[in-house]
């Protein structure tokens, strides 16, 4: 039986995919390529035998349609950190002052339990904090700084969300920027899901301290909205006044608008001193345009 050139080509490619050890170059560009690389045990190949007008075939590699194929496919794909969620920390510029070094070490030290040999890695940076030591950010300091950045943006510090656990938001505001960290606590250990930061515009620079701290909460809720709707959210802020603003009967229209936004979420605001809220405090000191869209 003769086949048309087009059908012959398609059948040839199909047979090559399911029967050869190497898939055709340039034919597979989707994630399915990973699945096709999963070899089947020789004793199990006959279990996938099927018949068609062109002959009898058996899969030598994992096909779609088997009951365990999706789980096998997921294990082969693996989990990778979303670069867009950690770009803020990955692209941090090198510190130019003792204050910036201290702020960065406070951020990194918050997750030191996940960083093996943290004290050894951070030693060159810690020397810059010593009294009467000139600030010289040399190659050794740069290497330590980049190493800590890499560790802060990889597992086990960065994890995917677990929808069965409450989310935690660490928010802070400085004179010129907002910082927020979305995370969860697993086995009483804090993990990061998403870093975010934003520079204040000209109008927001004139806000009072309370308004800036409240704005940081609103920014975080709006930024992480898709994660937080319908789940328990614990908000940590170093401004205790925020807890009482929600019960205030008379407030500025801006506050009323923000309080209406908070009512969409199941939130609990907890006070956390600035010296303990080191991660969000560090992010709030960065001049960074995370999102150009206006905050509600």
List keywords for this structure.
two-stranded antiparallel sheet, 7 strands, alpha/beta, five-stranded mixed beta sheet, disordered N terminus
Structural account:
The strands form two sheets. A five-stranded mixed sheet has the order 5-4-3-6-7. A two-stranded antiparallel ribbon has the order 1-2. The protein has helices at residues 5-19, 32-36, 69-77, 83-90, 98-110, 118-127, 139-152, 209-223, 225-228, 242-245, 253-262, 278-283; strands at 50-52, 55-57, 167-173, 177-186, 189-199, 232-237, 266-271. Helix content is 38%, strand content 16%. Helix 5 (98-110) packs antiparallel against helix 6 (118-127). It is built from twelve helices and seven strands. It is flat, with a radius of gyration of 27 Å.
Computed structural class: alpha/beta
Order of helices and strands: HHEEHHHHHEEEHHEHHEH
Q: What portion of residues is helical?
A: 25-40%
Total number of strands:
7
Spatial arrangement of strands, main beta sheet: 5-4-3-6-7
Task: Summarize model confidence as the mean pLDDT.
Answer: 76
Proportion in β-strands? 15-25%
Alpha-carbon Rg, integer: 27 Å
**Total count of helical runs of at least 4 residues:** 12
Quick one: overall form?
flat
Tell me the distance between the termini: 69 Å
Q: Specify the biggest β-sheet.
A: 5 strands, mixed
Which stretches are poorly predicted, pLDDT < 50 over at least 5 residues? Answer: 1-31
């Amino acid at each position: 039986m003769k086949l048309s050139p087009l059908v012959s080509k398609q059948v040839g490619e199909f047979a090559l995919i399911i029967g050869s050890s190497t898939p055709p170059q340039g034919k597979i560009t989707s994630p399915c390529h990973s699945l096709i690389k999963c070899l089947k045990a020789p004793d199990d190949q006959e279990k996938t035998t099927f018949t068609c007008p062109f002959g009898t075939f058996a899969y030598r590699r994992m096909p779609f349609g088997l009951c365990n194929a999706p789980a096998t496919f997921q294990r082969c794909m693996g989990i990778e950190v979303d670069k867009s969620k950690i770009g803020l920390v990955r692209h941090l510029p090198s510190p130019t002052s003792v204050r910036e070094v201290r702020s960065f070490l406070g951020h990194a030290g918050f997750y030191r339990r996940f960083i093996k040999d943290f004290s050894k890695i951070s030693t060159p940076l810690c020397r810059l904090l010593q009294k009467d030591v000139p600030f010289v950010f040399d190659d050794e300091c740069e290497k330590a700084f980049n190493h800590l950045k890499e560790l802060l943006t990889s597992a086990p510090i960065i994890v995917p969300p677990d929808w069965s656990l409450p989310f935690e938001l660490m928010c802070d505001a400085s004179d010129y920027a907002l910082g927020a960290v979305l995370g969860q606590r697993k086995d009483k250990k804090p993990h990061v899901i998403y870093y975010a930061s934003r520079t204040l515009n000209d109008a927001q620079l004139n806000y009072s301290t309370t308004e800036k701290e409240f704005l940081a909460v609103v920014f975080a809720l709006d930024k992480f909205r898709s994660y937080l709707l319908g789940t328990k959210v614990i908000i940590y802020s170093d401004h205790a006044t925020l807890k009482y603003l929600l019960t205030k009967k008379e407030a500025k229209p801006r506050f009323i608008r923000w309080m209406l936004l908070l009512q969409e979420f199941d939130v609990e605001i907890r006070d956390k001193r600035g010296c303990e809220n080191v991660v969000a405090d560090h992010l709030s000191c960065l001049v960074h345009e995370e999102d150009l869209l206006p905050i509600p």
